[in-house]
Amino acid sequence: MALEGLRARRTFWRTTVLSLGLLVLLLYWFPVRNLDLLIPMGVCPSATMVLLRDNFTGVLRLWNRPNVLTCTSWKAPIIWDGTFNPDVAQREARRQNLTIGLTVFAVGRYLEKYLSHFLESAEQYFMVGQRVVYYVFTEQPAAVPRVALGPGRQLRVEPVMRERRWQDVSMARMRTLHEALGGRLGREAHYVLCMDVDQHFSGLFGPEVLADSVAQLHAWHYRRPRWLLPFERDERSAAAIAFGEGDFYYHAAVFGGSVAALRRLTAHCARGLQLDRARGLEARWHDESHLNKFFWLHKPAKVLSPEFCWSRDIGRRAEIRHPRLFWAPKEYAEVRN
């Protein structure tokens, strides 16, 4: 009996060590970030697919992407490559005679590091053939690079105050955008997209993305279950989302909509940031946390798939067929100093 017990213990420990070794090899060859691939995305019900229409492309071809989630629980479309007709969207935008605004904040070293590439790639891919106004918010107006603009495209420089910390720059964005949307920006543009400067366009980014309110699925979190999403959990914060709440985690690098809808969004976020500051709080992901709270309370009319804002650091994913916007390498030590 004693001998059998000894053999059983040896077998147990050998199996345990072998299993741990295999787990280490698995994590080495299959990084933790790729464990997301084991999480199913879900699919849009067929009954919902046939009902969804887009404000610019008409009937959406959601059945072209059967292996990804193409709609939300509130029946808003999630736009993936192959689900829309870009030519129809272009014609509809021209028929409506739209002016589309694109805002970007280029403060401190972010201006010299990223702005030129951002604008040059936008001229190549962003709303091609449409009337566009770029609004560059910066404390260095004289340093904004001269970029050759196509017909019907303008660039406006909007001076802002320099903030002491990069977090304050991020959090002041909502207040600044709200004020601008109540002024010239709001008078000139019909739809506005707000983007981070540390990225560049890599594919056509057209009117198919436009809607009354537009949210961007975060490339690092779009496959993860709700309980793993990095919502603000401090219940004292105006950005707090309780466990069990929330739909998706949205990226503040891209959001947009009509002027009226964006005024409501930026007012909500600016007010929440101000309340938190008065309480001595700072949400985990700053203005992005408040953006996610807004979209939990007020569902976006259209959601963009991660193809519209992708990070090469994630690696290749079968569902990411045609990235439209790439994150630039994050060199925080250089640009946030």
Describe the structure.
- There is one protein chain.
- This protein has 2 domains: 29 residues; 294 residues, Spore Coat Polysaccharide Biosynthesis Protein SpsA, Chain A (Alpha-Beta Complex), CATH 3.90.550.
- The protein contains 9 helices and 12 strands.
- The chain has an 8-stranded mixed β-sheet with strand order 3-11-9-10-7-4-5-6, sandwiched between helices.
- It is found in: Membrane.
| Number of helical elements | 9
Name the CATH superfamily assignment of the largest domain: Spore Coat Polysaccharide Biosynthesis Protein SpsA, Chain A
Strand content: 15-25%
> How many structural domains can be distinguished in the coordinates?
2
Q: Share of helix among residues?
A: 25-40%
What overall form do the CA principal axes indicate? globular
Cofactor: Mn(2+)
Keywords: Glycosyltransferase, Manganese, Membrane, Metal-binding, Signal-anchor, Transferase, Transmembrane, Transmembrane helix
Pfam families: Glyco_transf_6
Membrane topology: Single-pass type II membrane protein
